[in-house]
Design a protein that fits this description.
Strand content: 5-15%
Oligomer: single chain
Number of strands: 4
Shape: globular
Largest sheet: 4 strands, mixed
């Protein structure tokens, strides 16, 4: 199941989808495609998670510092190789023991950066409990 829940006012530039095609309790941002959130995440949690995933989209749209973007001359490929792949690998047991991929996912640099961008973007519209679940500083 894939349900379009796009909100161009609060989340401009990317489609939002509820789905059961991803792991329960998870969400993922795929720039140029959409943000996918498991349909079991509802209410305040859904808004908070969507805001975090939107931070990844903002990273894709605004970051100029990824070496892979400059080297590959492709923002989308640069994002997937420079942000997406390390973020996903950091969630995999044993992979997250490798230097450069090490650490708790919520404190991993790709996540903290997305949280910072989301907090700046949403400002006073940021979910009240956002920082409890999505820290914007490394632990």
């Amino acid at each position: 199941m894939l349900k379009d829940i796009s909100d161009p006012v609060n989340f401009p530039g990317i489609k939002l989808f509820e789905t059961n095609l991803i792991l329960k309790g998870s969400a993922i941002c795929l720039p140029e495609i959409g943000i996918f959130i498991h349909l079991g995440i509802k209410g305040k949690a859904q808004n908070r998670v969507l805001q975090h995933e939107y931070g990844h989209f903002l990273d894709y749209k605004t970051s100029q510092d990824l070496r892979s973007k400059r080297t590959l001359k492709s923002p989308i490929l640069g994002f997937y190789l420079g942000i997406g792949l390390p973020s996903i690998l950091n969630t995999i047991p044993l992979m997250n023991k490798i230097p450069g991929l090490r650490g708790n996912h919520r404190d991993y640099w790709t996540e903290v950066r997305a949280n910072r961008l989301a907090a700046d973007w949403f400002g006073d519209r940021l979910a009240a409990d956002f920082s409890k679940f999505h820290p914007s500083e490394k632990a």
